[in-house]
What does this fold into?
Amino acid sequence: MENVLSILFCLTLLYIVVTSRLKTYVSILRTQGILLSAIMVFPFINHLSVHILIIPITSFIVKAVIIPRFINKIVIDLDVKRIVEPSIQPFNFLLLTVASMSVMFVSAHVLSGFTPIEPIPFASAFSAIIVGIYIIIFRKKLIVHVVGFMILENGIFLFGTSVAGEMPTIVELGAMLDVFVVVFLMGITINKIRSTFTQQDVSVLGRLKD
Amino acid sequence: MDIFLNIQGLFPFLFILGISPLLVGLINKQKALLTGRIGAPLWQPYFDLLRLTRKETIYAVTASFVSRLAPVVAFAAVLISSLMLPIGYVKPILSFNGDIIVFAYLLGLARFFQILGAMDIGSSFEGMGAAREATFAVFAEPIYFFTLGSLAFISGHTSIYDIYHSIRLDNPTSLVFIIVSSISAFFLMMTECSRMPIDDPNTHLELTMIHEVMILDNSGIDLFLYQYSSFIKIMIYAIYEASFFNPFSMQNPWLGFSVFIVMLLLLTALIAWVETMIARFKMKSIPQYLLFATAIGILNLLIYTFVRQ
It folds into this structure.
């Protein structure tokens, strides 16, 4: 069942590469949050306890409810143009993503011979990390960079569940707090610089001086 | 190579021949209802075909024997490929090892002759349509091979009938495979049958269409052959998709058959819905759309190398 959810996770990654609407980005982020919390619950479905449920529930609230809502709020407040401006052809971007994904799956296949990892969640997690980095590299809008960062973080979460059955609670909660604060700060920053830069585009950020 | 000939195998063939115009009628009716119109009756495609048989066939003065040959070859190739598809657990007339490749290239042959016929007529519009059709066919072919190819790879069979036989519904991995494959199969169907996000079947503005522009100068029995083969093509791809739910007929053939019919009906509803909701893509974003479907197929293949180990 974990494998099934990981594959759906991979499908969301492919979709985020081809889509060009900000709204879809946010809804994909929400879907990924739901999938991740489900992946975390499934191995322990037979012996649930409050201790085990803390992380999935927190991640559901943060990843699937608060952060998408917050990003939507920023988009509405700042009146950001609703289309994602890529700096690369979508076709090439998709080719690049598929190539990297194949490399990830093959390396996961090789690695699973030596170490006890689950190959499919492992490969999807690494693909998510790479797609997140690609989104940060190839997109111009600041708010999309936040989404790319979130996808990267989702990949790290999935990676944690694929390597160890159960990550230490305090580590996961710490990571989640980190991400939340980063997204929050990014939102505040974007909000503050809007008087100087009307279009939130990284290409003009070089002009940001004291 | 062993070719099975049996009376039972005639049933899928006759089913495809008889029902395919009705399927198109269903799609058109639902499309009309969704946009708030009453629409043409369900049997309209049959009437259209009947009307075309009574019309005179006219050839352009620049046309050579190729444009006389092309509709017949295209129709025959589509007919033969429809002989290979199973419905439920009924064995098709043609079924042998490696028929997935023959199936793909028979459809390719049909398209090739259609392109040749379009270029032979000598109209510049049809040359343009032929060029577009050829370009998008290049991107559509990998979808087929990655989807059915990964299935062949997993099951270890290379015959369509055996592949669909080997799908089991009892493990969740098979289930997710069905989901993933049906997405890419749906994209393939929309492309190959030139439906809405790729091509608009209703438009008659030459600059925006792909498939319809190629048959602009055909009339009478030639147009009948082209129209009928495009109806059959939709049916073929609908069956290709609906057959993922074949395993239901393992318990009971009638259950399997009714699941199959329900799947066909759902598919027509889905096509009508997609065509109502989504506008036609810009020409330049079509390759990207098709590559997305191919990427889903590649993902399939990647995943199932793990499951097999």
Chain B touches chain A through 22 residues (CB under 8 Å).
